[in-house]
Design goal:
heterodimer, A: mainly alpha, 22 helices, 76% helix, 0% strand, B: alpha/beta, nine-stranded mixed β-sheet
Chain lengths: 359, 430
């Protein structure tokens, strides 16, 4: 009986071991192929780069590049893409046209249709780069628009960037509208591409979303506006500062220093300093300090006297940005009986004086 | 059938069953990593670096003196690439001379910063802050045990996320940018993140054996556990946790492992939908031992952490079942299985000499111990390779694959004895 068990276990383990050895063999073949390819690229890519730099400098000598394109299409594609973000204007168009001439754009379109996720992503990344060029865009056609519904977040990102590059108002608005339904990471990654169109977007797309009943979309739109870090007109800021959703209130308050404030917005900001939610209150304190909101002085002084330590410290910092009245308040409160208030007031005042002396 | 033979039959059954489960966990880990690679978008860290939407991070650090090593560690933390981060250094019972060195080296000035949480911690003697652009906040406190030091750090941290990095691991300055990604992808649910990669190319037998152990650990205890949302940090991990979540669960009761168990236990207890995410990116790697002494120490550290969890189980929400079957499973692999393997081998030798069992039975025991462990180690190497979408270095791959044989012919049996004894060994306070 034991002998049978032994044989059965031996056969079972032997089978597994054989399977592992076979998989190891496959892995070794792949590892050697990668090493060979990496070494070849290491040798070739500097030369390809030199040729491309010469080409971008105005040379029309492409014979050697064409010969590389015949045998080493992956290397030439990689080097070409490494220029992303470093070239613009006519040099970028020249590069895109070269990719078109060498037939690389066709390859990338084929890659983008691949079932292999990694190859597909690479294909879209490369196509997104050349979408800045009109002839390339024509060849790519509607692919990027279709990819705006793709389930792969990376493909979606590349497609969005490509569509934004086209610069058409409706396309950019389309991407913006989709972006507010995506997660925070995607919004962060698209901020840079959308910033260029902040002005046009603030005419219609942004106000439409900010008036939406869906707090998630409103918050997402506010996230993007805050991340733009530039002056933008937002008509309904007071309404957003008083929004029922606390996260929307917090983000609207973070946006306030970037929006031209009218009297209504200023009073909404002062009102937010009395918000029962500590985080909303802290955001209001920061914004009041940034816009030097003198009407907020009494509320800030109250917060410095009565709030928990961290909020009191923030209120003191905000007061320190508003000399001379803010400093005067801090001086008075630095001898307060409450040690937290006194320490925060004294610390902020000393810091502000040091900074002023340094200037 | 004699009694020793019956016992050995049961042991063999147990070893095959646990071996199959371990293999299953590694397959699950491989599947998780492949899916992670497929679904996680690659992006330029610089975009996240510049964004004001990224939550700010307080990196916690401790020091007991002002040695060059401690100051270099703090500088390394200050130089991390991130949009907004600070380093909260808790100086634990250091002398006046040490404090003076810190003050002069980092240009520290007294700060009005106060604790914003009241996790159990000893009295703080003073708080200092470095002027911008430095990001250091130094909190000086009475000498106290490690959990209290971490709690002080959390109490004085000003940001929404706290980070813990291992001074003994190797990481890139961009590590926080990688670790924060799950919190940006799923900000509502992600309460903590752990990131680590298996160590780089091993050199020498000690590091090869450890590298093999790392592969098994990484696939099963990191990736598979992350797939089941039971992730616990392993030695060398870099960690992030939401400060609010840490405060809500009562802070540190022992080390980071207990903290993560507490976070799991709390969320499971309240029925909250949550996620502890795993970041398998090459920005952070555990360091490999170079000598057998270092290998021994690394194994002891792992085992003492697990023993510590059992010691503190009553302070952890959910106790021994904080992550369901995860902790009992871990104990089974790290303590029960080594014990059973050792007993099986000893009993086989004795029984064979005494004539209680025949040779096929002894062979069966060998298959269930040495044979099965070799296959599992081979599988770890292969599955790690399958999890990647690119080929690795063939020399490294072959080195690890063939190290699975000597690993299980002597070293593994010795390691089992270490695991059994280390479980009861008092941890090194450093």
């Amino acid at each position: 009986m034991t002998a049978i068990q032994f044989s059965a276990a031996g056969i079972l383990l032997g089978f597994f071991a054989l399977l592992m050895v076979s998989l190891f063999g496959v892995a070794m073949v792949r590892a050697f192929a990668w090493r060979r390819r990496a070494r070849a690229s290491e040798a070739l890519q500097p030369r390809i780069r030199d040729l491309l730099v010469t080409y971008l400098a105005g040379s029309n000598e492409v014979a050697e590049l064409k010969s590389f394109a015949g045998k080493n299409r992956r290397d030439i594609s990689e080097v070409l893409l490494s220029f992303q973000g470093t070239v613009g204007g006519s040099a970028l168009h020249r590069l895109c046209e070269l990719a078109l001439d060498l037939g690389l754009v066709h390859d990338w379109i084929a890659d983008a249709h691949s079932r292999d996720a990694v190859r597909r992503r690479t294909g879209y990344a490369r196509l997104s780069f050349v979408c800045a060029n009109e002839p390339c865009r024509r060849l790519i056609g509607d692919m990027m628009f279709h990819a705006l519904d793709d389930a792969d977040p990376e493909v979606w990102l590349w497609a969005s960037r490509a569509v934004i590059q086209s610069g058409a108002q409706s396309d950019v608005e389309g991407v913006f509208n989709r972006a507010v339904s995506k997660n925070l990471l995607v919004r962060i990654l698209l901020t840079e591409a959308l910033r260029k169109y902040a002005g046009p977007l603030c005419h219609k797309a942004v106000p439409d979303i900010l008036r939406s009943d869906d707090p998630g979309r409103v918050l997402a739109a506010l996230d993007i506006l805050v991340a733009w870090e530039r002056a933008i007109p937002v008509g309904n800021l007071p309404m957003l500062i008083d929004h029922r959703d606390r996260d929307v209130r917090i983000q609207a308050l973070r946006l306030a220093p970037m929006v031209p404030l009218n009297s209504e917005s200023r009073s909404a900001l002062v009102h937010a300093l009395s918000d029962p939610d500590a985080e909303v209150c802290a955001a209001a304190v920061l914004s009041a300090g940034r816009v030097h909101l003198e009407e907020a002085l009494p509320s800030l002084a109250r917060l410095l006297r009565l709030s928990p330590a961290e909020l009191a410290r923030s209120a003191a910092e905000a007061l320190a940005t508003m000399p001379p009245r803010g400093w005067q308040t801090l001086e008075e409160l630095s001898v307060n009986a409450n040690p937290v208030t006194a320490a925060a007031a004294e610390g902020a005042l000393n810091g502000a004086r040091r900074k002023a002396a340094f200037k | 059938m004699s009694t020793p033979e019956l016992i050995l039959q049961l042991i063999v059954l147990f070893l095959f069953a646990t071996g199959a489960l371990a293999f299953g966990a590694m397959v699950k880990g491989c599947y998780f990593l492949r899916r992670w690679n497929r679904t996680t978008p690659r992006y330029e860290g610089s975009i996240v670096l510049r964004s004001p939407l990224v939550p700010s991070v307080s990196v916690l650090a401790t020091a007991a003196d002002a040695s060059e090593k401690s100051r270099q560690w703090v500088r390394r933390l200050e130089e991390l690439h991130f949009s907004t981060h600070e380093v909260v250094l808790v100086l634990n019972g250091a002398s006046e001379e040490d404090l003076a060195v810190w003050i002069s080296d980092f240009h520290l000035a007294p700060s009005s910063r106060v604790a914003t949480a009241d996790l159990p911690a000893p009295a703080v003697r003073a708080v200092y802050e470095a002027p911008a652009p430095s990001k250091l906040v130094l909190v000086r406190q009475e000498e106290s045990p490690l959990p209290h030091i971490w709690n002080t750090g959390v109490n004085f941290s000003a940001h929404t996320v706290v980070a813990l990095l291992d001074p003994d691991s190797e990481f890139e300055p961009t590590i926080l940018l990688s670790l924060i990604r799950p919190m940006l992808e799923d900000p509502g649910r992600t309460i903590a993140v752990a990131g680590v990669m298996p160590p780089a190319t091993p050199d020498g037998w000690a590091s090869r054996f450890r590298a093999l152990e790392w592969l098994r650990l990484w696939l099963a205890r990191c990736a598979a556990f992350a797939g089941w949302n039971l992730l616990l940090p392993v030695d060398g991990s870099s960690l992030l946790a939401l400060r609010d979540a840490v405060v809500k669960t009562g802070g540190f009761v022992a080390g980071p492992l207990e903290l993560f168990l507490n976070l799991h236990g709390h969320c499971r207890g309240t029925g909250k939908e949550y996620r502890v995410a795993f970041v398998p990116e090459a920005v952070g790697q555990a360091r490999l031992p170079e000598t057998s002494e270092e290998l021994r120490e690394a194994i002891a550290r792992d085992q003492q952490e697990l023993a510590s969890v059992l010691r503190y189980r009553k302070s952890i929400q959910g106790g021994f079942r904080a992550i369901g079957w995860g902790l009992p499973g871990l104990l089974c692999v790290r303590w029960v299985r080594p014990l059973v393997e050792t007993v099986a081998l000893l009993l086989t030798v004795v029984s064979l000499i005494a004539g209680w069992i025949d040779l096929p039975m002894a062979g069966l025991v060998l298959l269930a111990t040495v044979g099965l462990d070799i296959v599992i180690s081979l599988a770890a190497v292969v599955l790690h390779e399958l999890a990647e979408f690119h080929g690795s270095d063939p020399d490294r791959l072959a080195g690890l694959f063939f190290a699975a044989f000597p690993e299980n012919l002597g070293y593994r049996q010795l390691r089992n004895l270490w695991l059994l004894s280390d479980f009861f060994r008092k941890p090194n306070p450093e």
